Amino acid sequence: MKRVGLTGNIGCGKSTVAQMFRQIGAYVVDADKLIHSFYKKGHPVFEKVVKVFGGEILDREGNIDRRKLADIVFKDEKKLRKLEEITHR
Predict the structure, then answer these.
(1) In the 8-state DSSP scheme, what is residue 1?
(2) At what angle do helices 44-53 and 77-87 cross, to 10 degrees?
(3) Tell me, what's the pLDDT at 38?
(4) Could you tell me how many helices (H) and strands (E) the chain has, helices first?
(5) CA neighbours within 13 Å on the CB side: how many for 56?
(6) DSSP 8-state class, residue 26
(7) Position 12 pLDDT exceeds 90
(8) Least-confidence region, from 31-35, 40-44, 75-79, 82-86
(9) Neighbours of 28 (CB within 10 A)
(10) Domain boundaries of the chain, sorted by first residue
């Protein structure tokens, strides 16, 4: 079985190409959807991310606010690496 990685900037057509792959019978993993599922309450990754980065990353409903988390990790390479360690296990 061949594996293909599909990457690119926002708006460059990744979703369109992924849909084309699905139409020809390819199994497609959407990494964005996968990681978003990790950030849901009750998931072990959610718990660890909140423990490491603190309650400041939560919205009013207690969910991880990805924008707040991004503001933290994209300003600090060490924090980005820590988030990657947590999510890539």
Answers:
(1) -
(2) 160
(3) 94
(4) 5, 0
(5) 9
(6) -
(7) yes
(8) 31-35
(9) 13
(10) 30-87
